[in-house]
Specification:
Oligomer: single chain
Largest sheet: 6 strands, parallel
Distance between the termini: 28 Å
Number of helices: 14
Strand content: 5-15%
Number of strands: 6
Order of helices and strands: HHHHHHHEHEHEHEHEHEHH
Bound molecules: zinc ion
Helix content: 40-55%
Length: 351
C-alpha cells in the first residue's frame, strides 16, 4: 500500500478537493460533524452538472443549493477558479504527514483490511466511497464487515438486509473489473454463550467472518473465556475482533479490558486458524502489547485492521502496523499482507 497520498495541487476538481478534505479530517480523527458537511457536499455535487457548478460558483450562488454550506462553497469556488482551495492547502500542511513514526515496512506490505463499516450499519459513508478510498490507498482487497442484528445501536443488518448487501457487493465487484476485490463479510456479535449473531446459512455465504464481543464485556473470567473459545473455534470465524474490548482514549471515554484467559483463547485461535486482530483504532489499541506478544508466542496469525467507520479511517492501519512491527510480528503472519487468493483460501471453512 502507498504510505501517503500525494498532496493535491492546483488545478483540482471540486469533488476531489472535498473528498480529500474529508479524508484528511477523518484520518486525523476530526469530529463527525465537521467531516459530514464535506461528505454531504460531495454527494450533492455529484448530482449536479459541471456547468451549473461553474455558473453558480462564478455568480456566488452555490449556497442556495441544499447540502452546500459556507465552507464547502468556498472550497468549490476556489477549485472552480483554478486555485488550490486554501482550506485544503492548510489541511494538507497540518494533517497530511505520517500518522505515526514506525511500522512503515509493515504498512507497505499490507494488501487489505478485514474489518470496516459502511453506512449500512454505523459507518458514515456509502460502500462505494469506502471502496474508492481503498483503491486510492493502494489496497488490493477489503472485506466489508457491517454489524450483525443484535447490535441495534449500530443498525446491525438483519439476514434480509445482509442478503441485499451481498448483491450490491457483487455489483461493486463487476464494476471494478477485477482491479480490486470487495469481499463479503460481517462483524458478527459473539453472543453470551459464544454462539454467533447470524444464521449459519448466511455466514456460509460470506468470504470472511470477523467476530467480536460487544455486549456483557464485564462478564466473569470463566464464562467469558468459554464464550470466546467457543467463538474462535467455530469454523465460520476467521478473525477475532478487538479481543479485550478496552477503550483507552476518545469521545466515548475509557473502558477496562474484559477479563478472560488469554492463553486459552489464543491457543484456540491457533488451533482453529483464527487470526487475532490488531485493531488499529487509537481509541481501542487492542489487544494491548502484552497480549500481542502472547499471541505471537503461541503461534497465532494476526489481522491488522482499521475498523474504519469512515473512508479516511482506513489509513489508521498505520497505528496497528507500528505496533506489530515494534512487537516483532512477521509480515507473513499477518493475513492482511496476503493476496486475495491466499486470503480467500485461508478463510474458506473447508481448508
Ligand atoms: Zn466491534
Ligand atoms: Zn467494527
Amino acid at each position: 500500500m502507498v504510505a501517503l497520498l500525494e498532496p493535491l495541487q492546483a488545478p483540482v476538481d471540486p469533488i476531489d478537493a472535498l473528498r480529500r478534505i474529508a479524508f484528511l479530517l477523518e484520518r486525523t480523527r476530526a469530529g463527525t460533524y465537521r467531516v459530514e458537511a464535506f461528505r454531504k457536499a460531495v454527494g450533492t455535487l455529484r448530482r449536479l452538472d459541471d456547468d451549473e457548478v461553474r455558473e453558480r460558483a462564478e455568480a456566488g450562488t452555490l449556497q442556495e443549493i441544499d447540502g452546500i454550506g459556507k465552507s464547502t462553497s468556498g472550497v468549490v469556488a476556489e477549485a472552480v477558479a483554478g486555485e488550490l482551495p486554501s482550506y485544503l492547502a492548510s489541511l494538507q500542511e497540518k494533517s497530511g504527514g505520517p500518522l505515526v513514526e514506525g511500522g512503515e515496512g509493515m504498512y507497505a506490505a499490507l494488501r487489505g483490511d478485514c474489518h470496516l463499516h459502511s453506512d449500512w450499519s454505523d459507518g458514515g459513508s456509502p460502500i462505494d466511497e469506502m471502496v474508492l478510498t481503498g483503491v486510492e490507498l493502494g489496497h488490493d482487497w477489503m472485506v466489508l464487515t457491517d454489524h450483525s442484528p443484535s447490535l441495534r445501536v449500530a443498525n446491525g443488518l438483519s439476514g434480509e438486509r445482509l442478503r441485499t448487501q451481498l448483491k450490491i457487493v457483487d455489483g461493486v465487484n463487476r464494476s471494478l473489473g477485477g482491479q480490486f476485490t470487495l469481499l463479503k463479510g460481517i462483524e458478527v456479535d459473539i453472543l453470551d454463550d459464544g454462539s454467533l449473531d447470524q444464521t449459519d446459512d448466511m455466514l456460509g455465504r460470506l468470504d470472511l467472518v470477523t467476530a467480536s464481543v460487544h455486549s456483557k464485556l464485564r462478564m466473569n473470567r470463566a464464562p467469558m473465556t468459554t464464550r470466546m473459545v467457543a467463538a474462535v473455534s467455530n469454523p465460520r470465524v476467521n478473525v477475532l475482533g478487538h479481543c479485550t474490548g478496552r477503550l483507552v482514549t476518545g469521545s466515548r471515554g475509557t473502558r477496562p479490558e474484559s477479563e478472560f484467559d488469554a492463553r486459552a483463547v489464543f491457543e484456540a485461535c491457533a488451533e482453529h486458524d483464527t487470526a487475532v486482530e490488531i485493531n488499529s483504532r487509537p481509541e481501542r489499541c487492542d489487544p494491548p502489547d502484552g497480549l500481542v506478544s502472547l499471541a505471537l508466542e503461541i503461534g497465532c496469525l494476526f489481522s491488522i485492521d482499521s475498523d474504519a467507520h469512515a473512508p479516511g479511517q482506513l489509513d489508521m492501519k498505520a497505528y496497528g502496523c507500528e505496533r506489530a512491527e515494534r512487537l516483532g510480528v512477521p509480515a507473513d503472519r499477518v493475513v492482511t499482507t496476503w493476496d486475495v487468493d491466499r486470503l480467500r483460501a485461508w478463510a474458506s471453512p473447508s481448508t
